[in-house]
Write a structure and sequence with these properties.
The structure holds two protein chains of two kinds. By secondary structure, chain A is mainly α. In chain A, about 75% of the residues lie in helices and about 5% in strands. In chain A, the strands form two sheets. Chain A has a two-stranded antiparallel sheet. In chain A, strands 2-3 form a two-stranded antiparallel ribbon. In chain B, the strands form two sheets. Chain B has a six-stranded parallel β-sheet, with helices on both faces. Chain B starts with a helix and ends in a 16-residue tail after the last strand. The chains are: A mainly alpha, B alpha/beta.
């Protein structure tokens, strides 16, 4: 029992997720149907993949605003280039664009020393412009059947994208926990000066994390294009980056950096997904969902504040 | 310490309760019974007669006939049908984007209550990813029929396909899926945008009389790339060219009244003399008001007519078309459209088919002259 208490005091978002699921079941018993639970996971897998990238940046003490428009740009490239260079080439180019945006973000923040908010905001605007210029303000349908089939196909109860998300979670967990880059990320996020003094290359760590976030944001756009069978310039606009950041923070990772893990992000994204799902089931207006997300975030932060003593006693677990 | 934990629990509980309260508050589905179903059937029957009456409406002077080979705007006869077992779902584009969508969204909820049918109406607020998720939610809820007013016609192909794969009929509303997705749907209910533009422009050219030949028309476009705006433009252009006129200038308004006003102001400077402009046409009523404001400010009111391809805002119909400030437009009523869509969804839910792959609502041309004769779209039902 003590172990359970200790576990829950460290992972405050788990009791909140369970509480919301219980309320959802009371509101509509069909919520707990296995089909619906898998549905919630499938629906939020792409957001989860982008949250993995955002987790690296947030653990490092930063955040990336460019995600919401980068994904619409890569979605447009992934669809628009298919007739010219084939589906593999189109996906590679789109990923490359995600990589380049991540490199620009990383260079400007880590090596030039410009504030991350300003840098990623500028990239957000730049990508938004390109996301409209490239497709000439039009939606573009994906021409490859394989591409569309990947977006909607299933293996068991989970979509291919969900399986990709699970693989991504495992890799991210390994990197954060068992590699020097992961440990450097926590150290740099917790106290950059101390990390620097300890011989950690903080700039390189920040740079790599922005690149990871750029690539996974770009991948998110490609996956949305596959799932929808088309790209649209407004994809992700205006708040996808905020939802992804909210997912990471809801899970329990600290915006100030140095504390959290990839499973927190999974739980945070699923909390958002469950709230949206129950709003659909109960036929509520979308703004009610937005309000509830805000209310839950406040609840999480209050819970985190009050349980900080318990967490200190249990020791930090990343 | 215990007190802190207790406080935390209480706060979390309160937040959770607020979630529960909000979640149940927005439900528009009504408890259905056979008595409510039968009363709704009569409501439907009267609505049907109204819709049929509107079909006889015509423009001023010489009337124009429909340029479409579409199926008529008729609605199914639901009288005596038990609708209580139906659960209909709709993934809606945006419930508060503009007057038309708001009216459609609100009236569909009301009309579902009148019919006594359980309607799950989800608002995607113009977010294509949200709409894709909502379609999955509706599938999970095992709706009898799923209606989609798509955020994006291309993306709705995958949505319609997933609905069909779940064995649920998918009915497209207002805007159709692109051609490669039509086979995944049971059909489409909504306006024929091309015909709206064609009929309005044809009436405009008829009213111009001898000035129609060689007419210099300025056209205010909608949002670039938007299917609806493009089809209305094509319809208007076709009618203008058939009558011997041509579009001498065409610029985008980005769908905004203010932008349309700017465009018109520039034109009034560019074409300063009487006779330089035969008429200004716009893709919708909102932008036509912007053009009217510019013309009035320039003191050139009455020099040439302003026509809109379509109108669905009663404040514009009663405030501008009735007085002749805007010469006319095809009247597209959100009331008629939402009722027609829901009627056909019920019809399909009862195991029937649409009479055709596309069922177009009636959109008669309304002008100052025929204002009293045209069915004005039952806007009073919005109250």
């Amino acid at each position: 029992m003590k172990k359970v208490t200790k576990f829950l005091s460290v992972n405050t978002s788990i009791p909140i997720l369970i509480g919301i699921m219980i309320i959802a079941t009371i509101l509509d018993v069909s919520f707990m149907a296995p089909g619906n639970l898998f549905n919630v996971f499938n629906q939020n897998a792409i957001k989860g993949i982008m949250a993995i990238g955002m987790s690296f940046v947030i653990l490092n003490g930063f955040f990336d605003m460019s995600l919401c428009t980068l994904l619409s740009l890569t979605a447009a490239l992934a669809c628009g280039l298919q007739p010219k260079i084939g589906v593999a080439g189109a996906v590679l180019v789109a990923l490359l664009v995600g990589l380049i945006v991540g490199i620009i973000n990383g260079l400007l923040v880590a090596y030039v020393g410009i504030n991350a908010f300003v840098v990623t905001l500028a990239l957000m605007l730049g990508c938004r412009g390109f996301a409209y210029i490239y497709p000439d303000e039009q939606s573009i349908s994906a021409t490859s059947d394989a591409f569309r089939a990947f977006g909607t196909g299933k293996l068991g109860p989970l979509t291919y994208i969900s399986w990709l998300y699970i693989i991504g979670l495992l890799i991210a967990h390994y990197v954060l926990r068992y590699t020097s880059h992961g440990r450097n990320t926590y150290a740099a996020g917790g106290n950059a000066s101390a990390a620097e003094n300890a011989g950690i290359n903080v700039r390189k760590t920040i740079f790599i994390n922005f690149v990871i976030c750029g690539v996974l944001s770009g991948l998110g756009g490609i996956l949305y294009a596959a799932q929808n069978g088309a790209s649209t310039p407004a994809l992700g606009w205006p708040d996808m980056h905020m939802l992804v950041i909210a997912g990471v923070v809801l899970g329990g990772s600290k915006l100030s950096g140095g504390y959290g893990n990839i499973w927190y992000s999974l739980i945070g994204v699923m909390i958002l997904g469950v709230v949206n799902n129950i709003m659909s089931i109960t036929n509520a207006q979308p703004w009610v969902s937005t309000f509830c997300t805000g209310a839950i975030m406040i609840a999480v932060l209050i819970a985190d504040k009050f349980l900080s003593d318990a967490r200190a006693k249990a020791g930090l677990k990343n | 310490m215990k007190f802190k934990k207790l406080t935390t629990l209480v706060i979390c509980g309160a937040m959770a309760l607020s979630l529960a309260a909000c979640g149940s508050g927005g439900s528009s589905s009504s408890g259905s019974s056979s008595s409510s179903a039968s009363s709704s059937a009569s409501a439907s029957a009267s609505a049907k007669s109204e819709a049929v009456a509107s079909a006889s409406a015509s423009g001023a002077g010489e009337s124009v006939s429909s340029g479409s080979s579409a199926v008529s705007e008729s609605r199914p006869d639901l009288s005596g049908k038990d609708l209580s077992g139906l659960k209909l779902g709709m993934a809606f584009r945006h419930g508060s984007n503009d007057t038309y969508m708001t009216s459609y969204f609100q009236h569909m909820k009301n009309y579902a209550k009148t019919l006594g049918v359980d309607l799950v109406l989800l608002d995607a607020v113009d977010d294509v990813t949200k709409q894709t998720n909502q379609v999955q939610d509706l599938i999970q809820q095992k709706c009898s029929v799923i209606m989609i007013w798509p955020v994006n016609s291309e993306s709705s192909v995958a949505q319609a396909k997933s609905v069909q794969q779940a064995g649920i009929p998918c009915l497209m509303c207002n805007s159709n899926v692109t051609d490669d997705g039509v086979d995944y749907t049971v059909g489409f209910v909504g306006p024929d945008d091309y015909t709206e533009g064609y009929n309005a422009a044809k009436q405009a050219m008829t009213d111009l009389g001898s000035s129609a030949k060689g007419a210099k028309i300025l056209f205010v476009e909608g949002v670039n790339g938007q299917q609806q705006a493009q089809q209305r433009k094509e319809g208007m252009q076709k009618a203008v060219e058939e009558a011997g006129g041509k579009f001498v200038d065409s610029q985008t308004s980005e769908g905004k009244r203010e932008k349309a006003q700017q465009v018109a102001e520039n034109w009034l400077v560019k074409y300063p003399s009487k006779g330089d402009i035969t008429a200004i046409m716009t893709f919708d009523d909102n932008t036509a008001v912007g053009v009217y404001n510019a013309v009035k400010a320039a003191g050139r009111e009455g020099e040439f007519p302003i026509w809109a391809a379509a109108t669905g805002d009663y404040s514009i119909i009663s405030g501008y078309i009735k007085d002749g400030k805007i010469a006319g437009a095809s009247l597209q009523s959100p009331i008629t459209e939402s009722e027609t869509a829901l009627d056909w969804a019920c019809w399909i839910g009862l195991g029937n088919d649409l009479p055709s792959k596309s069922v177009f609502i009636d959109t008669p041309v309304i002008t100052e002259q025929n204002f009293a004769q045209v069915d004005q779209g039952n806007f009073e039902k919005l109250i």
